[in-house]
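To close the section, here is one more complete example, presented without commentary so you can practise reading it yourself. The ligand is flavin mononucleotide.
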Amino acid sequence: MKITILNGSPRKQNTAAMVEAFAEGAKAAGHEVETIQVGKLKINGCLACEYCHGKGEGKCVQKDDMEKVMPAYMDCDMIVFASPIYYFDMTAQLSAAIQRVYAIGKPPKATKAALLLSSASPNPFEGAIATYKNMLAFMGIEDKGVFTAAGDENGSEAKLTEIREFAKAL
Ligand SMILES: Cc1cc2nc3c(=O)[nH]c(=O)nc-3n(C[C@H](O)[C@H](O)[C@H](O)COP(=O)(O)O)c2cc1C
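Output:
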């Protein structure tokens, strides 16, 4: 299957290590994986102008980096959301990339999803996990797994192996 990973981190450290472990496992299982570092992209919030639901016919009126994300949303069978925790939530860039799906309603082919979260402190994940699970329920997408790495768990071989093996079994 085609898997799109959206990494909300603007840098390539802790979340990127989880993403790489996932991608390694998924590729080893024969899946096609595309990773987009949305944390480095310029994606505005939704303007609620409704252009996409009228004249735009599914296209957003805003011309920004969401144009790089939308084709991957349209095409994937599975979406992996990955993010560092910023103030008890996903990053603003990833939140924007999620909310701009409004233009198309839901990713048309995606039936599965997973969540990878990284933090400094022990347990700030509740908000991001709730957003992810509510969104999946709304879109009719099945959660295949949520993985968190806090503090010293970041980059640990145990955590990365767990993620790699999970992806290998998809
Ligand atoms: C703006 C900002 C806000 C953060 N907020 C939290 C937080 O609320 N709780 C927490 O445990 N860590 C917080 N962190 C730490 C990051 O979640 C943590 O360092 C994470 O591993 C970074 O992942 P990355 O290397 O992929 O960017 C914050 C970091 C930044 C830059």
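Once you have examined the tokens, check your reading against these statements. The chain has a mean pLDDT of 98. The domain at 2-168 is CATH 3.40.50.360 (Rossmann fold).
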